[in-house]
Amino acid sequence: MAKPKEKIRALAFDLGSVLVDVDFTPMFNRILPHTDYLNLEDLRRVAPIHEHHFRSESARRFNLGSMSSNDYYKTFCSEVGIDEGSRAHEMCSFSYDNFVHAFSNNVFSEIEEMSELIAEVSPQLEMMIMITNINELHYDFLREKFPHVFKPFGQNIIASYRVKLMKPDDRIYKLAIKRLASRGIRREEALFIDDMAENTHGAKGVKIKTFWFDRKTPLPKLMKELKGRLRGHGLNLS
Q: pTM for this structure?
């Protein structure tokens, strides 16, 4: 007879692509007229953002809180070619305020299936933690636009730009472990959910259970697999 899985007392969630979907296409559409690129595909190849993951050094620094939003704006414009050169004067039509608007508006959407799941499981848990690689602009925007997504986590939100650490650095998971310990919860009694395999591997490295929320899998199938995993750890789900 198979040994039953250990009951979990806490869940930890990533934010982007787990609690909210991310699509930067609207941002690229707003930027394109201010560049010399003829189409979105050409712009995407040079832009420091690829789909929903940041890849440039400047974006990494922004997510670590070591670069201000204004400095990131200037660097971003330089990287996509709208701050200097033949079309430099058009910079005035893509101001910092325009950048902030384009950087967040119509980029994010709530994953309602996950919100419904959290509403069902959170009363059965002793702690909910969010661990997210995020910059200050996106964090502030999302907190204002989706307050109900953040509410179940209370003060237990570990945001990279605030703690100056990013997943999969094991130190960011150790911050979560400290919060668990403050409630008498062992790391083995928590499950961390993230859409990036490297981040789940990082959590496994410090002995936290994980679930890879692989967005290449259709969402209905993924949610079914996650619910099955949670039921296996003793949670009651409809």
A: 0.91
